[in-house]
Amino acid sequence: MIGDASLLTGLTLKHGGYVTYEDNNKGKIVGNRDIKVKGNLTIQNVLLVEGLKHNLLSISQLCDKGLQVTFQPEICLISSEDSRHTHLVGKRVNNVYMLDLNCINSDINCLITKCDETWLWHRRIAHIHMHHLNRIASKELVIGLPKLKFEKDKVCEACQKGKQTKSSFKQKHFFFTTKPLEMLHMDLFRPSRTMSIGGNYYGLVIVDDFARFTKTLFLVTKDVGFSAFTKLAKVIQNEKKRTIVAIKTDHGGEFQNERFEKFRIQQNFSAPRTPQ
């Protein structure tokens, strides 16, 4: 409803009919017209009421037309039903939400709290793991969190940097070795949460210092690392017609033991807390 006839162009006169206010007073309806505001929103059947001092917008009629109205402490949003586009934004002034139809941006998306982008919700909720997001959404523990299928289909750069305890090592441009099998770097990684196809949880990684050739052996338990390495050593030594000169590992118990000491290959250890 509107009280100023100058704001309505192409007004259709309408004789008869009254509007009853909250205090039971009545206002005479003298005309009506559809108003198209800036953007693609049209407010239909706007009534010109005689003597009305404020322009009023009916929330119930907006909802009936498929729009979504969201009230917050300082603003209110009138958006599409799927919350993808915000049509009108009102500011709270003296406990009344007021709209400025002359300053409307149809692309106000930064004020919308609902979104179907899974990685955006991952960032909003403190970069939580996607597995935990699925549990939170299924149990409705967060108000406003949509029930989406959260999948880790890419790497979050912020999470990767946040969990990185040290800076990256500088690229190595020179080698201390002059031929393959002169030095093998070895490490055994901890049990993974996902079991391999062969039913293994551990992995022994072997890298040749000269050729940078890498071999990964999957193990059921970490104590079989020595036998797995000796089998591989015999194969590659016969294949390359060369002898493994030395191996370099950390001080883990799977490497620093009696079996490796008796094995006829020179064994070097990296300095503590310097994995490079």
How does this model look, in words?
With 276 residues, the chain is of the alpha+beta class. It has four domains: 1-56, no CATH class; 58-113, no CATH class; 118-155, no CATH class; 184-269, 2-Layer Sandwich (Nucleotidyltransferase, domain 5). It is 18% helix and 26% strand. The protein contains six helices and 13 strands. It has helices at 59-64, 118-124, 130-138, 157-162, 225-240, 258-262; strands at residues 12-13, 18-20, 26-36, 42-49, 68-71, 75-79, 86-93, 96-99, 184-189, 202-208, 214-219, 246-249, 266-269. The strands form three sheets. The protein has a five-stranded mixed sheet with strand order 11-10-9-12-13, covered by helices on one side. Strand 12 (246-249), helix 6 (258-262) and strand 13 form a beta-alpha-beta unit. It starts with 11 loop residues before the first strand and ends in a 7-residue tail after the last strand.
Domain module tally: 4
Order of the strands making up the biggest sheet = 11-10-9-12-13
Rounded to an integer, what's the Rg over CA atoms?
A: 35 Å
Count of helical regions? 6
Main pleated sheet: 5 strands, mixed
Give the helix proportion (percent range).
Answer: 10-25%
Order of helix and strand elements from N to C terminus: EEEEHEEEEHHHEEEHEHE
Mean pLDDT: 83
Which runs of at least 5 residues are low in confidence (pLDDT < 50)?
104-113
Straight-line distance between termini? 74 Å
By CATH, the superfamily of the largest domain comes out as Ribonuclease H-like superfamily/Ribonuclease H
CATH fold title of the largest domain: Nucleotidyltransferase, domain 5
* Class computed from helices, strands and strand pairing: alpha+beta
Give the CATH architecture of the largest domain. 2-Layer Sandwich
Give the CATH level 1 class of the largest domain. Alpha Beta
Estimate the global geometry from the Cα principal axes. Answer: rod-shaped
Relative strand content: 25-35%
Number of separate strands: 13
